[in-house]
Each structure stands twice: as C-alpha cells, then as structure tokens.
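Need the bound structure for beta-D-glucopyranose, inputs here:
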Amino acid sequence: MSWSIYTNSTDRKQLALEESLYFTGNGYIGIRGNLEEENASSDSIVGTYINGFYDDVPIPYGEKMHGFPDYQQKLLNVIDPQSIVIWVGTGEDREKLSLLTGKVVDYKRALHMDKGFSERYIHWRSKQGHELKITFKRLASFKRKNLFFQQIFLCPVTKNIPIQIISSLNGNVTNYTNPNDPRVGNDASKRLFVKHMKQQNGQSYIELQTKVSELSVAALSELKVHHDHVTYNHFMQNGELISKATFVLKEKTTIGKRTFFADTLRYTNLEQTLGLAREEASVFSFFDIQTEQQDYLASFWKKTDIIIEKDHSLQEAIRFNLFHILQSTGQDGRSNIAAKGLSGEGYEGHYFWDTEIYLLPIYTMTNPEMAKKLLFYRYSILPQAKQRAYEMGHSQGALFPWRTISGTECSSFFPAGTAQYHISADIAHSYIQYYLATDDVEFMKQAGAEMLVETARLWMDVGHFTKNSFRIDAITGPDEYTCIVNNNYYTNVMAKQNLRWAVKICTFLQETDTECWGKLKSRLNISYKELDCFEKAAQKMYLPVDEKLKINPQDDTFLQKAKWDFKHTSKDKYPLLLHYHPLTIYRYQVCKQADTVLAHLLQEDEQSEVVMKNSYDYYERITPHDSSLSTCVFSMMAARLTYLDKAYDYYLQAARLDLDDVQGNTKDGLHMANMGGTWMGIVVGFAGMRIKESGLYFRPQLPTKWNKYTFSIQYKGRMLHIIMTKKTFTIELLKGSPLLIHVWDKPVQLINKEVITNSVSRGMLNGKSIYF
Ligand code: BGC
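Answer from helper R.:
Posting the output first, comments after.
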C-alpha cells in the first residue's frame, strides 16, 4: 500500500507537471518524465540533468557595483536520451503512436517508490485498425550511477503489425526559460556544443562541451530489439543520432535502450568510462537492474520510512517526498541537493541553505554516511567561501554563497541573496548536529573544526560590540520580504551557536588530541585570544525581547513598520513577490516564510516558552507562506507549542505540496526543502525529537486523526525504532548499547525497549497538565 503513485490523465496541460512528479534519478543523473513517443511536445519541459554539471553564465547588470558576481553557474539540460517514437503500419498510412491520435483504449502511468522505476501502459488502436499494448519502463540505477535504462514491452492485440521504432540520442539541447518568473532562469542562449558524435557497432556516442566552464558531458546509447527479424538503420540528423529498427510485431517483444552518462567533473576519459560502464551492465536485463534497484531501496526504506497508519494520502506523500529526495541527493562529495533536486530547472539547479536546514537532518538521523558526503561538499567549497568573504570586504572568515553549484556566489539580487549571511551559520549548525548525532570525532578533525572556526571568524568581522552587546548589522534573515536589517534574531541566535561551538570543538581537540590541535592551531593561525573573543561575542549576542509584546522582534525595526493589509489583498496577488516591487513589500510587516519561528525551532533553549508562544502567534498572523519552506516549520513549531490541530493542518499543506501542485509551479521542479520538512514534521514536529549536547530528547504527540506513526533513527551508532500510538510511546533499541534519553524532559534509561504509557504526565503547559 502507498508505494506507488498513479495517473491516467492524458491532458496535455498536465504534462509538464507530471514530468516533475514522475522524474527518475539516482543522485547523479536526473531525467524528467517526458513521454518517449512525444518527447518534443510544446507542453513539455524536456530535461536531463547531471548533478552539479554547469556552465558559467555572465550576469548582465544595468548598474554593477563592487562585489557583484560577474558569472553565475547554471545547471545544464544535457544530452536527451528519452525519445523513442513508434510508427505503426506501412507506407503513407503509417501512424505515429500517440496519446493524441488513434484510440487510447486504456492508459496508466505509475511511479514505484519501493521498486525504483516508473512505467506507462498504453492500450492503443490505430485508425487503420492495428491494436497493441505497450509498456514503457524506465529507471536511473542507484547502483550503476551512469546508467539510465528504458524498456519497452510490445504486445500485439491484432495480428502482424508492421512497426518502426525511431530512437534518438539528442545533443541539440538548450535550457528551459521563463522571463516572467524570477524563480526560473531567463537566459535562452545555447550553452552546450558538439565536440564529438559518432555511431559504431549500433552504439551512439555524443560528447558535448560547455561554452564557458569548458566541462564536457558524454552519453553512450544503445537500442536492442529482442526479435528474430529486425532491420536496424543508424544515422545522424541535426545534432541527433538516430537508431531505426523495423520489424513485424507478431508476438510479445521487448526492446531495451540503455544510455550511460559521464562528465569531466568526475571522469578524465569519458569514452572509456562509458565503454566500461556499458560492458559491465550489458549482461543485465532490465529485470536484473530493477532487482538491484529494489534491494538498494529496501535498505533505504528500512532506515528512512515513516509509517502513518490508515492514512493513505499522507503515507503516499511521505514516501513520494523521501523517494524524490533520495533521487536528487549527490552522493559523491562534490555535489549536493539542488532546491528542485534533479527534477527540473527552477532556481537553475542551485544549492541553497535548504540542504542544511531542511534536508540534512534526514540523513544525519537515518544515514550518517550520506550526510557526511553532503557536509564534505560544503567543505570542498570552503576556499571559495573564504575568497567571497574577502571580496565582501571582510578581513577574515568564510561567507558561503547564498546560491551556488561550484562554490562561487550566483545571486545577482544581493538584498535577498548575498545578504543572507545566515547560510554560514546554517552550515555550521548542520556540522554541529551531525557531530552530536554521531560522535564522529574524526570528521571534526578532518573538516568540522576548520568549518566552525572559519564561519565563526565571519561573525567576528561582520558583527561588533556596542552597548555591552554583540550586534550584527546590514544582513538579511530567512524572510526574504524583509531585507538588509540590523540584528535579525534568527541570524544572531544561529551565529551565537556557531561562535560557541567553534570554541567548544577547539577546546575539545586541545584536551583530547594535542597533536591534531597543534596542527590545526598553526594551520589556521588560531590564538587563545581569538577563542576568548568568540566566547565573549556568543555570550553578549544581542537577542532582544520586546517588553510589551513579549516576543522576539524579527530585527531592530521590524515592529515599527506598518502591517501588510491582508484583508484587501486578493488571492491572485500571492505570492506577493510576483506582484509587488520588493521595496513595497519591505516597508511592511509581512513575512514570506518562517524566520523567528524557525529560530525557535532550531534553538529552543534560547527563549522562554512564553516568548516562543507569543512570537508564534504574532508571526503566524503576518506570514502568507509565499515560500514553500514555511508551512512545515509552522507545523513543527505548532507541535512544539502543543497546538496539535494547527500542527496537523500545516502538516497536510506541506506534505502534498507537490503531489497536489499547491503552489502551481511544480512543473519547474519539486520543492526539495519542503519535502525534507515532511520527514522533519513527524520526527522533529510530532515526535518532538531534538539532538542536544545533553542528549536525545522527545516530546511525542499524536494528531487526533491518527492512530499510530512509526519511524527509525540512528544515534551515536545505535538504531532506535519509535512507535507512537494513542496510548503509548515506545522506543526500541534495535542496535547498540543502552542510552539515557529524555521524554518530555524526564530522563528515561533505554536498555532494550521502553514503553511509556499515557498515565505519565508530561508536565504543565499554559496552566494545564498534559498527559499522553
Ligand atoms: C526561499 C528561500 C529558499 C529558496 C530556494 C526561496 O523562495 O525564500 O528560503 O532557499 O526559495 O528553495
């Protein structure tokens, strides 16, 4: 149950949306669900992407100021392997199999999240009366990263059907553009050019090179019809390599098309790499590869699945979201998770803070090895972050780019881009969380300590001591509707953690490994005086509370502004960013997304319950959730404040955001951060899990509409299984040594299995005793 999504829509207007929903990827390649037989349809966005494969594109400015980036990277739509056109009949009467012409007797499309492939079934009758059933299957292999495999299964209903298959490998590709939407690229220029193209022994090979970054990508493709009497014909046509296969369909026939991809970011000899990958995979059928795929996924689901009993719609959404996150996750230390994953071109394939705050927690808690790869990616771009800090006038530290692929800043709109300095603290936070969840000291020695020190240095340079407090001016917090402010609460509280942990980790190394500490200290030129300054800045960090409202002001001037007139803003004016000049928006109290509320979620020990609650109530009223990164946070924080119904309602909105195309732009790609928020919504939201220096904490609750949820996590080498029902909260220690945890702040010694019943009071909240 709930392992697959289905559609039988043949509506052209839904095509682009379905291409995102049914995309197949493996963290390296991502291929939109374009229809094999209609690949170039005008309603489509044809797309094949390689994680992190980009060109440098010049940024045109009317008025260019100092420190504005000259170039941005753009994820490229690379060689298209998808097209397989099927002609039925002969001579002038032959017809192209299509969902638009002839008679579609039956049609169904599915994506199987447990088996890792997608399929389409068409029962079709041509105008001439030929009738056949076709199943298209496709997958991007998780175990063989270079391989995209398509299989067609033809089953004749009428006798002796003349068939011609025209399969193409297309090197004539450009990116999708939409000049009216700032969330999609608008540069229509061609960025990939043919370097090499050939056909040999029935194999098609194309190598393309980018215009500026001088990177190359290659694909090798091969079509095989499993039929005794088939005639092949291979030729070249306008940048496409075509393989034609002609035969008479008398009985069930299988056709396989294997396409392999490689690029010069990862490989030195592309042709050789692809030749080897082909050789290794050629003995395996689609079924073999699909079995491998299923094994891989069985292990993924064992660690990551969340089960919500008897709620099919949510269960489907959770699995759908987790599956697409996996399909989009770079696992090689040199790529990451783009805002739209590998499903589309929205945000031009850039990596944002989305990974660290919304997606990494999943891997940190279910698959730390994969988390480490993502953390290493950030470490690999530390030199560029230091260079960027220097360009921005800082004398020290690392300023990570707001959006990037190869490490340099790609944002041309600095108020809601470069000014979001919090990304450096978000990255530091993800390192701290990883360390607290794994005790991976080696990793901290290798990369973590350096990252924490270099990011902490940034705060010392951008901030300053005034009136006995440490303040950070002229930056932008997560809320992109309020820009360039002083003392954004979120940024200050995250910077505080960053500074404090830089000191902690240095002290720890000094006490436990003097050799390592000695090397680090001299390599990074760390002095004890510097560490004292970090500590002092953390202690004195300015985190004001408005005395009257008893809330944390989002920044120094936020509460002085007029409130946005929500009453007279019609629904069609949202998202506001598409209808108002930024300055208009900046003048009002209106939040695009969770900001202070997110700060409370991540740093709950910095404020009292009352301030967190009042802040939630206040900011909720002025947040239209114009960013998909918002509702999941409001759900989790609502759960934290025991607003259970609210938490549930927000959770529903977040969980099916892409499946139901709630924001109307899923055609440009899936909203990865929100998808991560769905996993967090259960684990961090309803189960109330927090990883702190003092241990693992839970505040479990169950929405009234549910009977039960379960999930597993890994923590410091242990595996825990959690079951929440109406009556009990159970934690099983499946692997590892006993552990002291906290449930509603009460210590619980976990030896084997602890069942905590609802007779235990979980304390007082808002004057009421709370039981579970
Ligand atoms: C949000 C950012 C986010 C970006 C990419 C924007 O709409 O405001 O917080 O990082 O989308 O997902």
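Comments: The first strand starts at residue 4 and ends at 7. DSSP finds 18 helices and 34 strands in the chain.
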